[in-house]
Description:
Its EC number is 2.5.1.-. The chain is α/β, with parallel strands linked by helices. It folds into two domains: about 250 residues, Type I PLP-dependent aspartate aminotransferase-like (Major domain) (Aspartate Aminotransferase, domain 2, 3-Layer(aba) Sandwich), CATH 3.40.640; about 130 residues, Alpha-Beta Complex (Aspartate Aminotransferase, domain 1). The protein contains 15 helices and twelve strands. The longest helix has 20 residues. The site of pyridoxal-5'-phosphate has 17 residues, from α4 and α5. Pyridoxal-5'-phosphate binds next to α4 and α5.
Amino acid sequence: MSRRPLPADRALSPATLLIHEAEARSGYGEMSEAMFLTSGFAYDTMEAAEARFDGRDPGFIYSRFSNPTVATFEKRMIALEGAEAGRATASGMAAVTAAMLCQLNAGDHVVAARALFGSCRYVVEDLCPRFGIASTLVDGADLAQWRAAIRPETKVLFLESPTNPTLEVYDIAAVAAIAHDAGARLVVDNVFATPILQKPLALGADVVVYSATKHIDGQGRVLGGMVLGSEKFIMDHLHTFLRQTGPSLSPFNAWTLAKGLETLSLRVERAQATAGRIADVLAEHPKITKLTYCGRADHPQAELIRKQMKGGGTLVTFRVGDDKAAAFRFGNALEIIKISNNLGDAKSILTHPATTTHQRLSPEARAEMGVVDATLRLSVGLEDPDDLIEDILRALETV
Ligand SMILES: *Cc1c(COP(=O)(O)O)cnc(C)c1O
């Protein structure tokens, strides 16, 4: 391995770190990172194997534990987030499940905001209780509800901000303070904001989790996840849990994600600029009955957004007309924007949450979250903004 180190006497910006952090070249001096698609590693001697296992030689042992390509992705994510440590996982849900279960025991209690990504809600509401970990769901915007839900055995508070799909924003610093007063940790799912636009650890959160499947890959290719926090949290809780239970990121996916990071800030900035333009067009349109975009002054939490986010992000949520028929007619009339349930892709994606991602919830539970039959979520991609606006305006004509 040859390496010319990055300058150590000045802080580099994310755009630079995402391209150059953790560069490790093999003897061939390749420019693009090599992919170490290997499950195991060979030792020159029996003594070398012994030293690797007893920790005297800190090299790789087995790709369930760690792998050079996965390590490159992890180091870039750690540098971007400004975290002390982090571990990659096979998917966003593997990251969420590991971040929760690695630190919880039977008898503990979790408080979470009700407006969670569906599978995250399953982990808190269904999975944790099966192992004797009680949970309480609260309205994430209501700090009094967070405080009232705390019990002596509360160990973890969990939220996602902005939320899926209604783009509510919660006060991360305030909820972190409530957690710390109770001797608990705050875990934040930062997928919608991306690590470019929001830094939960700097706001006081203890652990941040990502589905790297979304903006970090950014081209809809692979699944992946990441958990970041203090060195102590990772070593005391996460490290052994991941090693022994095995939700490991494949080196191929890690390579894809590390290459995705090189363009992350460019992509997020471009998609965000387009999302802002689309939101402004939709806000003025007579067939749009409600519009939520985190970058607009009419967002109910605009002041909080200015405090904790660097921009409005790449998602726009709106209601077309007032029923499912209008929402479906609009979606079916789109010619460029795709109908899918993913997000953070180069391709713009329209989702009807009530019949797809949130179908499992009762109509009452959906209504409680602000998801009605007319609600649509648009993940803005990298196409030409004028082409997207034209696609949307033409489709609205059919409603
Ligand atoms: C997609 C997503 C997840 C789950 O990630 P996977 O990579 O699909 O497992 C978790 N939280 C949020 C907010 C998401 O959007």
